[in-house]
Design brief:
Number of helices of chain A: 12
CATH superfamily of the largest domain in chain A: Butyryl-CoA Dehydrogenase, subunit A, domain 3
CATH class of the largest domain in chain B: Mainly Alpha
CATH architecture of the largest domain in chain B: Up-down Bundle
Number of strands of chain A: 11
Distance between the termini of chain B: 27 Å
Number of domains of chain B: 3
Structural class of chain A: alpha+beta
Oligomer: heterodimer
Number of domains of chain A: 3
Mean pLDDT of chain A: 93
Mean pLDDT of chain B: 96
Strand order of the largest sheet of chain A: 2-3-7-6
Strand content of chain B: 15-25%
Radius of gyration of chain A: 22 Å
Shape of chain A: globular
Chain lengths: 398, 379
């Protein structure tokens, strides 16, 4: 047992650390650090910078720009990126649709989409959930009927993150209504500019506009935009959802947040001393740090194990990463709010702009919105209750 | 970075796991506890034969030459068996103190006796009001020729009634809670002026109240606190691994029960509310296992602050995970979990007592908070 990284791994870590902290503009990283929303341009600039360096899509097949890194390198890449407050590459592009196209798409569709997806020349969004199909995703009803060379799509998607930024949407659609639920679903790529596609924002409790409804009204989609085989979309969706196992814990991001909380708590005062010197506050923070350290160790165990497990098998410990990682992220947003005290209260922004100058310290403006917003973390990507169902079945055999 | 065991470590693990499986079933343990000493003399000899009593000592002295990872392997297995022999007191705790405090001649004379199973040790340091503060010592040491005379009282001396020799803290100089002036002493357990009252502990092990009235003792160190802290940190790492062993069994037993116990015409494990609670036990177990590994790796760290942070963090995680898993294990078993004749409650009790040893979760959380936490610490 040796928890030290090798000299090569340390050199890689240092390279990553240097790159992330110099190549990505400070202004973007500051927004991430404080939990401010990123503009479309921020996200695209960041991803293109990574892509120019060959670091936007390390998880892809090598011929399409992947790196074939070791699990430890992947871990260090994510950890350093998150600790430097660099925005993760657009997840819809890099973790979701890219790997699906690369794995299941034909040569033509790969050539057409993968380079542009890597470079964020296309901004993707994900059309999975529907009003009646949340945790029970396979019950989805958005219909795609084959008519000549086209599919005609009718239906509605919901919780579509950043659809307002997106050029294209990858959708799960029902292509066979007679088959068993899971066997009538296909994976279809749709240009958002196609007539009949309508995006309507959903304002979330933090006042943010991150998610949307997307409506499809007789949308004609060329049949060549089907990924893989018709009615195999559920398999591809499962592949997609199972793809990201370790990054989902967001340990690096939480470490950055802990460091930031310590900085802010040294500025804020409690009585005649800095808040950070209040034993009760310190204990609350330390308690989260311990869970975070344990999670980091658990993640390293999973990473170390990935080298040995044959493909497809999972370390039981991996299943807890999302469950625990999400809760820790949420707890840290609570602590930020606690740090800024009454300055959590002013509602500083909505779509129309924000208070100028801001009321109270700049860093307080996102404290409450981020707390409210981060309630999502234990809901999206399969709620924590669904995660428990999965673990109970797959790991515990219940 | 890897979590693999070396070939030698794997062999050790296989042999200890086998020993626990063959010799430490729940019914066998009951028999060992029923022996007059409260543990099995035969088992102690067995530990000696397998080289376990020499685990942390140098090979040149006839020991196994193991470090914290080897200790983790052994104590985790012992946790699964709920071992009642004075292994922690003799080998881990006193062994750790001797390695750090005793001179070569003394070590060379004691270690072969320990590894052969002929010498059992204990460490007396808790006093009536010391709680978990290792620096809080009122027992006095008065110089008398080359030796010292100790007077005072020590409480909850683990396996103090079985020990042939006892290590003791006593104050040579300074006030009750000064960090300096604390000596570490060694004395015979039947030395004149030393009296012991042995008793069982909640978890089926043994301890003793020890009173000292001018007891003649050899000083191993006259400023011992730093080395005691390091030895105790190593001992905590060992306890963390033992605790993980108990948690593993509580988790396994509960899972098995959920699959076999039927109510309302089906296994109770088919009910979602119990499935989710079982998953949360698994999460708590894996988090604890991760921190026990972290503690094992950090136990040898010479920088006392870094070591302290890591050990404190691990002890908090173990305490919290253990309490959660233990309470849930009893609850999910229902009535049967409450009975003395069923095993799960005994694991719960051992785990609970581990939290009371060398600082509970709250104590270590406060300590860690004072040191500025684990990440990007502000000092």
């Amino acid at each position: 047992m040796d928890l030290n990284f090798t000299a090569e791994e340390l050199a890689f870590r240092d390279e990553a650390r240097h790159f992330f902290r110099t190549a990505i503009p400070e202004s973007i990283r500051a927004k991430v650090a404080e939990g401010e929303g990123l503009s479309r341009d921020d996200m695209i600039l960041s991803q293109r910078t990574l892509n120019q360096h060959g670091w936007a899509t390390p998880n892809w097949p090598v011929e399409w720009g992947g790196k074939a890194w070791s699990p430890v390198q992947v871990y260090l890449y994510q950890d350093e990126m998150q600790q430097a407050n660099v925005p993760s590459p657009i997840p819809f592009n890099v973790s979701m649709v890219g790997p699906v196209i690369a794995q299941f798409g034909g040569q033509e569709i790969k050539q057409r989409f993968l380079p542009m997806t890597a470079n964020a020349d296309i901004f993707w969004c994900q059309g999975f959930s529907e009003p009646g199909s949340g945790s029970d995703l396979a019950s989805l009803r958005t219909r795609a009927e084959r008519k000549g060379d086209n599919y005609v799509v009718n239906g509605q998607k919901i919780w579509t993150t950043l659809a307002q930024y997106a050029d294209w949407i990858f959708c799960l659609v029902r292509t066979d209504t007679a088959a068993k639920q899971q066997e009538g679903i296909s994976f279809l790529l749709i240009d958002m500019k196609t007539p009949g596609v309508t995006v309507r924002p959903i304002v979330t409790i933090d006042g943010g506009r991150e998610v949307n409804e997307v409506f499809f009204d007789n949308v004609e989609v060329p049949a060549e935009n089907l990924v893989g085989q018709e009615n195999k979309g559920w398999d591809y969706a499962k592949f997609l959802l199972g793809n990201e196992r370790t990054g989902i814990a967001r340990v690096g991001a939480s470490k950055a947040k802990v460091a930031r909380i310590k900085e802010l708590a040294a500025i804020e005062r409690s009585g005649d001393r800095p808040l950070i010197d209040d034993p009760k506050f310190r204990e609350k923070l330390a308690a989260v740090e311990i869970e975070l350290k344990a999670l980091e160790m658990t993640q390293l165990r999973v990473v170390a194990d990935e080298r040995k497990l044959e493909k497809g098998r999972q370390n039981p410990a991996s299943s807890i990463l999302k469950l625990k990682g999400s809760v820790i992220q949420q707890q840290l947003t609570e602590l930020v709010m606690e740090v800024v005290g009454p300055y959590a209260m002013p509602y500083q922004r909505d779509f129309d702009g924000r208070n100028e100058p801001v009321i109270g310290p700049e860093y307080a403006t996102e404290a409450a919105p981020m707390y409210f917003n981060y309630r999502k973390v234990s809901i999206y990507g399969g709620s924590n209750e669904i995660q428990r169902n999965i673990i109970a079945k797959a790991i515990l055999g219940l | 970075m890897d979590f693999d065991l070396s070939d030698e470590q794997r062999l050790l693990k296989e042999s200890v796991d086998r020993l626990i499986l063959d010799q430490y079933q729940f019914q066998q343990r009951k028999q060992y506890m029923a022996e007059p000493a409260g543990y099995s003399a035969a088992m102690w000899s067995r530990f000696a034969e397998q080289g376990l009593l020499g685990l942390p000592f140098a090979e040149s002295l006839g020991g196994f030459g193991g470090g914290a990872v080897e200790t983790m392997i052994v104590t985790e297995a012992f946790g699964r068996g709920l071992v009642v022999e004075p292994y922690f007191a003799t080998v881990i705790l006193a062994g750790g103190l001797l390695r750090r405090a005793a001179d070569q001649a003394l070590i060379a004379s004691l270690v072969p006796q320990i590894t052969a199973g002929r010498l059992k040790l204990a460490f007396g340091h808790v006093e009536r009001h010391s709680r978990y503060d290792l620096a809080n010592v009122t027992t006095t040491a008065r110089k008398d020729g080359a030796e010292y005379l100790l007077s005072g009282a020590k409480s909850v001396v683990l396996h103090g009634d079985a020990a042939d020799k006892i290590l003791l803290t006593a104050r040579i100089s300074g006030a009750q809670r000064d960090r300096s002036g604390i000596g570490l002493f060694l004395t015979e357990s039947d030395a004149p002026g030393l009296s012991r009252r042995g008793y069982p502990t909640q978890d089926g092990l043994r301890a003793a109240e020890v009173t000292l009235d001018g007891v003649r003792a050899v000083a191993l160190s006259d400023d011992a606190l730093p080395l005691i802290e390091h030895a105790v940190d190593e001992a905590i790492a060992a306890l963390c691994a033992e605790a993980v062993g108990t948690m593993q069994v509580m988790h396994d037993l509960t899972l098995e029960y959920l699959k076999t116990r039927k109510q309302f015409g089906r296994p109770i494990g088919s009910f979602q509310v119990l499935q989710h609670r079982s998953v949360d036990m698994l999460v708590a177990l894996e988090q604890a296992r991760s921190m026990a590994m972290f503690a094992a790796v950090m136990a040898a760290e010479e920088n006392p602050i870094e070591r302290r942070r890591a050990i404190a963090a691990a002890k908090v995680q173990i305490g919290r995970s253990g309490r959660h898993i233990g309470q849930e294990a009893i609850q999910l078993h229902g009535g049967i979990g409450m009975t003395m004749e069923y095993s799960v409650g005994h694991y719960f009790k051992r785990m609970t007592m581990i939290d009371q040893l060398y600082g509970d979760a709250d104590q270590h959380l406060a300590g860690l908070a004072q040191l500025g936490g684990l990440f990007g610490a502000t000092s």
